[in-house]
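Lecture 7 notes: from sequence to structure.
We start with the chain below.
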Amino acid sequence: MDHRNPTLKDVADAAGVHRATASRALNNDPRITEATRLRVLEAAEQLGYRVDPLVSLLMSHRRTATTPAFQGVIAYVTRYETPGAWQEFSESFTRIHRGAASAAERHGYVLEEFCVPPVKGAVATFQRVALARGIQCVLLAPLPRPNGHLRLEWDKFNAIGIGYSLIRPEIHRVATDHFGCLILATRQARRRGYRRIGVTLNGQVNERTDRRWLGALLVEHERSRPEERIPPLVTRDWDEGAFQEWYGTHRPEVIMGVHMYRVADALEKMGLRVPEDVGLISLELRDREKGMSGIDQNFEQIGATAVHNVIGMFHRGERGLPLAAQKSLIDGNWVEGSTLR
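Predicted structure tokens for the same chain:
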């Protein structure tokens, strides 16, 4: 009986393709048709073929003299309809990916996006490709919508989630310390003499942050006088009319939240000056909010920490769902701007 491990040539012969074609199919090469890729995957699965990480390392080393001593692939799983679509969704997602890719490269790994759209069979196909290529390390990128879930054979992977949009199953994750960021922003406002502090959020942002900004606001309300407490404005989407009504009712001295460029535009239409009439604090500074006072959430560090954590899990042999999930929370930094007096 032949007890040798199946080779790439065995997979190619079983699938009826050239060895180079089999290699490209297992590496998710876009030049390979979906039918051929599935045929190669089925052959690899039936034969029990797995990529040998040491052989993969040797082949990579032959291709480039600058490859570090160890190299592997970390799957960056996105759930959008097409690869790279997440870059159009949020600046923060781009910064997270940039930090993760840089950290992976420093450790000798390659961060590779695997687009797993929300269609039937996509998750199973990803899993088959990953296992056939010997990929165990998985980063689950923020989902298009909050309160998501994902079914994998978790015992075959080391997985880290980024942010709070994935709620099932409960896995280790890395996220912004949203609670601490709001406390930091509030302290900065109070240091400048502001007392009536208003917070405005949209519903999806509130869900994505696991409601931690609102939790911190409750703590701050306990520390303030009753007349200083302003109920938060939480709307499904940005609603300028609701904002104007909220502002007219409560007259906050300073407003904090996300997408604060919209708030600034609304205040200008209302004839209000920033910071003379009202102060502004962004809880998530964006490119179009340059010069605004607020919080830099260190998104690159979130991505880098996720990579560090998943590599550590890989070396410790920690696969599957944890008995007690851990959260690594990254502090935000205060950025001085011109929107506070």
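Points to note: The chain has a mean pLDDT of 90. The chain has three domains: 1-49, 52-176+304-330, 178-296.
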